[in-house]
Predict the 3D structure of the following.
Amino acid sequence: MDRVEVDGSLGEGGGQVMRLAIALSAATGRAVRVSRVRANRERPGLAAQHAAAVRAVAALCGARTEGVEVGSRTVVFEPARPVGGEASVEVGTAGSVTLVLQAVLGALTGAGALAARLSVGGGTDVIRAPSWDYLVHVLLPSLSRAGLECEAVCERRGFYPVGGGRVTAALPGRAGRLRPLAPSSSRAARIEGAIVCSGLPDHVPQRIDHAIRSGLVGRDVGRIARTRVEAACPGVVATLWADLGDAVVGASMVGRRGLPSEDIGTALAKEVCADIDAGATVDAHLLDQLVPCAAMAGGRAVLRAREVSLHASTALDVAAAFVPIKVSREETGGTVALTIAPG
């Protein structure tokens, strides 16, 4: 069997390499062997959330796997059929369910993907991962414009360190290839947001809200919802997103001990405003998440961001191992236009 070899120490050398390799293996039908998994991390090898992502994608394409255990440094993944069907996985910790969903969404970028349904338990809003609201209001609308639809529901929030969240996602089948994304950012931005809190005093989300609004003075600001939920442990997360007409940019941050509430709101407002003012059509975090979609699309994708992060460069290198792509960059003002086209 044709097998792609991926070095897990590539680029940023973290779990992203593992998730992308498995996703693109399933999307293209090409087997993969990932060695030196998460080699650049303090504790190398698969963590619980990465193992959950592999198990979820494997269940949806009938893959034969090797090395899918926490701590494993080599993983073999051999897809047996087109992606589709049902899967249910438990991360077992506060590991990110949004990162598990990222892997599944990447697997469904292939032409002819079948209908799929997924249930994942774990952390919905944890550090170093997109928040649930970011996934729903930024990533999923962007993928929808390319033709990858997903209806996602959060049944229960889960914060660090306990987790205990539960989400489901339903994706219809698709006959052809995805459309290439080339948003123009042609409309003045309307900014909205969400602050979700569990088990913390009311002043915490209030102070985040105040700081956000202070940083958005003079902007077109819509609803910034404040919601209190029941969760297995206390936590707070804030997310902002800006509707640009045919594109969306956003940012999210999870609260933690020692981080002032005001700093969360100020940082989010500053980041979203910087993307809007620069004329970006994707934020830096969204850029790397859209690489599988752009690589598998049937045409020329053009994504404009304030920067091409190491995560995005790593994603491009992994994608190039599975499909022939041509990548070019053009700096204009305060942005970089990244063009990804079939090779």
